[in-house]
Sequence to fold (596 residues):
Amino acid sequence: MPKLGFFAPHYGKKRTNQEIMKYLLKFIKPHIGTVLLLMLLYALQSLCALFLPYVMSDIVESGIRNGDLHRIFVEGAIMVGLAAVALSCALVNNKVNSNFSARLSVELRKAVFNKVNSLSFEQFSALGTGSLITRTTDDVGWIEDTIAQVPYIIVTVPTFFIGGVALSFKGDWVLPLILLGVSLLVLAITTLISSRMEKYWQRGEEFTDVQNRVVRERLSGIRVVRAFDREQYEHGRVKKATSEMCNSFVTANTVSGLINPVASLLLNLAEVAILYVGAMRVQTESLLKAGDVLATIQYIALIANAILVLSWTISLIPHVKVSIKRVGEIMRIDSDSPSAESCRQIISDGSVTFDGVSFAYPGSSAHSLSDVSVNIGNGEVIGIIGGTGSGKSTLVKLLLDFYPVSGGSRTLGGSNYDDLSPATVRDNMSVCLQKSMIFEGTVAENVKMGNPDATDEQIREVLQIAQMQNFIDGKSDGINYKLTQAGNNLSGGQKQRVNIARTIIKPAAVYIFDDSFSALDYLTESNLRKSLNKYLRGKTQIVVTQRAATAMRCDKVYVLDEGRVVGVGTHEQLLATCSEYREIYSSQMGGGGANE
Fold:
């Protein structure tokens, strides 16, 4: 598979469709043998089709005219043989081409998927999930179908057109001139019609992205939509996007749909004219024979087929051009992390520092974090607390190097983030994100995502630490209990505990828990935290929370408010010195300053 770096010198750098096509053709290179076989079979099939009218003409002139039955049977057998060879080539072509296009689609989609996985959050958000899905499925599908047709178009169209015209001139020069004139007219009309179609395909694909995004929002928020009786409003959003998409595609298909009937009409009129002129010339010209007219009519059918295929190809170009452009926009983005293993390194020191870090999301005028300084020693258990919107989750994203900082500096294990690849940073951190993500599969498979080499004993150990032992013991399948999509057969707390087990099974220097205990009752959290501290002794833990009862058990707590650090210290120190922390504690614990 070709390397993805071709499109990655600079994000957003303009590249021509020709350059993108050269890149796409690299996917064909490993299958060059298959392509050559297809072209050979198409050529053989086309030659057989070309010689059939020639043999038929000889049967009429030499066999039927002279009453030579032997010649009729011999040349009839030759026609059957040519037809059999053409049919065999067609059957083999269909099988080989299907396998070729399927493999090509797999490789291209895999390349796009790998590229998407390498994008930063900023790059990912700029395109959007809905658009990426459409580009990976629909647009790649159009490219796949077009490339699969290339061998047929390259071989069949020129063979039928050039061969048909040449053999037609062998019988008579007037009749082929009629067809050539009509063919040029058809191609001119096709080119004119196709030139207007690209803008409609572009607009249609853009609104397909919008429709995809709106439908995804509706499905993910269906409970909220129904709870607030907003179904009609959501129907309106989907209807608007669908109508715009439909209008664009209907217009594009209507315009492109004019090509076949117009081409067929003109070619059929050409055939009528050829029959009329041919009949007149048979009666007046000694050089033109009835068999030549019949052969010319057959050649006309072959040439007409070539013209229709070429017209269809020209009409397809605008849509394929849009698809190539949309896929190329993904592939030419500069990835945020090198994939080479040599850039990764194991960091045993889990110390983390943020020195005056500021950050604003792309497109935002306000900073989400301002002048944040954090000093975390190796093996410390650090709490980060703050209200909603205080910047806690943003801080986690910067810890994982999902975004570059606007100002300040960051270090991990004494090394500056600028000197580490994002892959290295994430290899040495294990995170339990705020949103519990469960995948369809067994409990063991979900936990092993943190460490694919983990044994069943290790999985059971971390599940026990995550307080999931009773749940596992209650299932006949144990750790092989099947979880449905998104973990719908688990409660919110159980999802969090599976995520915690997945997090701690990964060997890392730093473990981050982003509001990972919010769905647990206090007793379960207390037992889990005791087991967790014992299991992760000597490892750095960063616990992001909104709950004072969670933060107070940490060695040191950082208090965030409106993107700034407004307090640092132990629970007792913060109660004495930080009004924001006292307010959080009082509202949740019922006032007082005693340590619980």
About this structure: Residues 350-428+510-518+544-588 form a domain with the Rossmann fold fold (CATH 3.40.50.300). The two ends are 59 Å apart (CA to CA).
